[in-house]
Amino acid sequence: MKERWGKLGFVLASIGSAVGLGNIWRFPYIVGENGGGSFVLAYLITILIFGIPVMLLEIGAGKHFRGSILTVFKNIKEKIKWLAILPLVTGFVILGYYLVVTGWSLAYFVFYLFRNFIQFSAFSSSKLPLFFFTVSLIATAVVVKAGIKKGIEKFCRYTVPFLFILIIILLAKALTLPNAIEGIKFYMKPDFVRFISPKTWIFACGQALFSLSAGYGILMTYGSYISKKEDIYRSTGLIAAADTLIALLGALLIFSIVFSFGADPDQGPALAFITLPKIFEVMSYGWLFGIAFFMLLFFAAITSSVSMFELIVRNLNDELKISRTRSTIFSTLGLFAIGSLVVFSIFSLESLDFIFGTLFISLSAAVTCIIVGWFWKPEFLMREVEKQEKLDYRHLTVKGIFNFIIDFIKYSLMIYLVKFVIPVILIVLFFAELFGI
């Protein structure tokens, strides 16, 4: 008997998966590199058009087949199950470098806690990144090894509310800084030339999927543990709303600080670890702000790392019949190898983040939509999402007719987006960016 989520367990765990480094580390620097408000507007549109339908697709398929993405693909059509390799490899590599950044967050939290500040250049050239990466990897493995209810659900039940409280406290302070309004202007003002650029949209799609943990099997795995009575529309709405809110607040927090001190928002992945520490040095009580910020970053990172780790473990568990303990150990060793290559700069973190966190995650979502949308009957997907057997003509009351019309619109829109719009646009954007169009 497979484990099942407890009350609110699925929602909290999925919010924890979505609310991570993608919101507080990745989102602000991508906004900074892609025109501020123009990117934010594109991001919000892609959340609605791409993110939420892919979430519904994954959760519904996971709930129906009660398995990982490889199991789902295999049950839909045996001959095409090998296509699951793309989302699995994408998630595996993302987690490998993601844990390196998680280690940076933990390291800086420790530095500020003991008031022993180290410049990022000195830190990255030492052996400390390998140590903190290893600690983060082991901590994630321990949570996943404990299972769904005793490990992941219990962990997220405490950390997710804490993340919301902490970011509100930090934001309240950041908005009182001088010139914070300049950061808000950059963040909110769109540049319509940048808005119509294909580059803006491929990054927006990648960020939306990355942030929501959609497109590479995480929500399919988490969906396999939910009860038959789970309201998927409601749960998906709560997860997407919470994730988007934290992303928007996280970027507002960082830009308020950055512009208050005249720093450049276009700093890439190092924005949180080079620019912000310099600002904390000259802020009143900056070391306390640093403690709170990097604590927020670390706990946000761990909640997402746990979900990506569970994706790998569940696939090994389902398809190779390896126990959870052994699956966790094998996954840990593989992730240590990838993370070590990033720590020692054999692989560039920024290049990996672009290839896997932007390009491949979009392609992976397109493949998932094609497999589930074209090779699995749409009625089955909507049955899982709607919790009903079929669209019902019997209740010919005004309310019944109204509900039927709404259901029909949702059904048609969902199937049309999943089968045609999302995969076509994602594939076009993928090749446009790949060939520099």
Structure description:
The structure is a single chain. The longest helix is centred in the last third of the chain and has 37 residues, at 398-434. This protein is an all-alpha fold. The chain has 19 helices and no strands. Helices cover 77% and strands 0% of the residues. It has a single domain, classed as Hydantoin permease (Orthogonal Bundle), CATH 1.10.4160.10.
CATH architecture: Orthogonal Bundle
**Under the CATH scheme, which class?**
Mainly Alpha
Largest sheet: none
Percent in strands: under 5%
Instruction: State the shape.
Output: globular
Would you list the SSEs in sequence order as H and E?
HHHHHHHHHHHHHHHHHHH
Share of helix, binned: over 70%
Do you know the CATH topology? Hydantoin permease
Number of domains: 1
CATH superfamily membership: Hydantoin permease
Q: What labels would you give this structure?
A:
437 residues; mainly alpha; Hydantoin permease
Short description:
This protein is an all-alpha fold and 437 residues long. It has helices at residues 9-18, 21-33, 37-65, 69-76, 85-113, 120-124, 128-145, 148-174, 180-188, 192-195, 198-212, 218-223, 232-260, 275-282, 286-319, 324-343, 349-375, 378-386, 398-434.
